[in-house]
Specification:
The protein is mainly α and 461 residues long. The chain has one domain (2-7, 16-21, 42-458). It contains 17 helices and 3 strands. Strands 1-3-2 form a 3-stranded mixed β-sheet. Helix 2 runs parallel beside helix 5, helix 5 packs parallel to helix 7 and helix 9 runs parallel beside helix 16.
């Protein structure tokens, strides 16, 4: 029996004892390469994580592009509601599992394997709970949404397996594994789409079903590679006891803030027509390629900054700020390129709804830039496990975002609603960075050689 003791990084926290299953060792997942946590280059990990996020999002972007290419504004509005449901479901499961895994400080594979296997099983359980809710919701939505909701509910647990396996690779400082999983999904999806297109089956249910089914196929591989059914109750209990405080706060912060931009789509249903929602969705889709890169940078910031903050707080703050400023600037440059591109060519590429959607591009570009700045602050807070500050930030900012957006939309229309989002996210960025700087100056790095955040007792045979 061995015991290891540490405190949480941000301020002193009470220790917590977690009992692990008897004879439960930390062996590696099947076929996973050796860990590179102790020696991996920051630049290499950052670059590969961005590439992985790109590979992950390209399949999503390909789906959206194909739907837009074949659909009018009304069908795009239906697709926007479906996409919003997927992002909210995935984000909730990630907050409770993957995001927690990404902030662990352990460098020893035998210790991290416990969190990986426990988190993987917990992610499956969370996704199954979401699937049950989706099945119930499918009975309440319109017939044009019902088929897609059922497809999503059936596929989501396996897609969650693929997603958590990606984060295992990132957390092991081996994003190449995550890239492989994402590219497998993309190649399978494009292959199935090619067959459907040859048969003339390009409506929303067929294309969306191809995307969800191929993601599930990769999820089956992740399930075989990482699922451990030895002592499943102890695994889930271990994860709940060790990560519940951070996980629930991450989930609360996501539901209140990160997901708010997607909840707006639901709220717009009560103000605008489905066609207007489709135009809003198409304007967002125009930022898809660059949003891939930004999402990758923000994901990598959590993993890399978590290590940097332990070495030099001031330098880590500058690193996180640089990531936010650069990504915001690139978003604005992309916005200008998209807006001034020939309308005829963009219409052929993105479908017949583009001329109307184009009018929203400048405002949405500013929103994306401000989201990058506020997102970098949130990533910094997550990297030092400052979940309480992140949650408080969301609780303060959501009413502001809601008021700015909805009042503008009700009184002046869709353009004013997006302008309200610009104002809200500008405030969000300022307040978020104020909290990050204050929290960073109170950050207490783990003592040398003392990598665990909790007290664990591992029973040996």
């Amino acid at each position: 029996m061995e015991s290891v003791t540490t405190e949480h990084g941000l301020g002193a926290a009470p220790t917590m004892r977690v009992e692990c299953p008897p004879n439960w060792r930390g062996e590696h997942s099947r076929s996973m390469p050796a860990s590179k946590r102790a020696s991996a280059s920051k630049q290499r990990v950052m670059a590969l994580t961005v590439i992985d996020q790109g590979a992950s999002s390209v399949s999503n972007f390909a789906l959206a592009f194909l739907v837009a290419h074949y659909s009018d504004a009304h069908v795009l509005g239906v697709f926007a509601i479906l996409t919003t449901t997927y992002i909210l479901s995935q984000g909730l499961v990630r907050s409770l599992t993957s995001d927690c895994l990404l902030t662990r400080h352990e460098t020893d594979d035998s210790e991290m394997a416990k969190f990986e296997r426990a988190g993987f099983l917990s992610a499956i359980m969370g996704a199954l709970a979401v699937a049950v809710v989706l099945f119930a919701a499918s009975t309440l939505v319109s017939p044009e949404l019902r088929i897609a909701f059922v497809i999503f509910a059936l596929s989501f647990p396996l897609m969650a397996c693929q997603d958590f396996a990606r984060y295992i690779g990132i957390n092991r400082f081996n994003p190449a594994y995550a890239i492989w999983l994402d590219l497998a999904w993309l190649v399978l999806f494009l292959g199935v789409y090619g067959v459907l297109r040859h048969q003339g089956l390009v409506s929303l249910p067929w294309v969306y079903g191809a995307w969800a089914t191929t993601g599930s196929a990769v999820g089956v591989y992740a399930l075989w590679n990482h699922l451990s059914l030895r002592h499943p109750r102890q695994l889930v209990t271990f994860w709940f006891k060790s990560e519940r405080s951070v996980g629930f706060r991450f989930a609360g912060q996501f539901l209140l803030s990160s997901s708010w931009a997607y909840v707006v789509v639901y709220l717009f249903v009560f103000i605008f027509s489905i066609a207007v929602i489709g135009q809003f969705k198409l304007a967002q889709l125009a930022f898809g390629p660059i949003a891939v890169m930004v999402a990758g940078v923000l994901t990598a910031l959590v993993a890399v900054a978590s290590k940097s903050f332990r070495a030099d707080v001031s330098r880590a703050l500058r690193f996180v700020l640089l990531g936010g400023v650069v990504t915001a600037g690139i978003q604005l440059l992309w916005m200008m390129g998209v807006y001034f591109a020939p309308v005829g060519k963009m219409t052929k590429l993105l479908g017949p709804a583009w001329p109307q959607a184009r009018q929203l591009v400048p405002l949405i570009g500013v929103v994306f830039a401000l989201v990058a700045l506020s997102g970098s602050a949130a990533a910094g807070l997550r990297s030092i496990r400052a979940a309480r500050e992140n949650l408080h930030l969301a609780m303060v900012m959501v009413p502001i975002l809601f008021t700015c957006c909805m009042v503008g939309g009700i009184v002046w229309g869709i353009e004013a609603a997006v302008a309200g989002l610009c104002i809200g996210y500008g405030i969000y960025a300022v307040v978020g960075w104020f909290l990050l700087v204050r929290a960073a100056h109170r950050y207490i790095p783990p003592a040398p050689g003392d990598e665990l955040d909790i007290v664990m007792e591992v029973a040996e045979p």
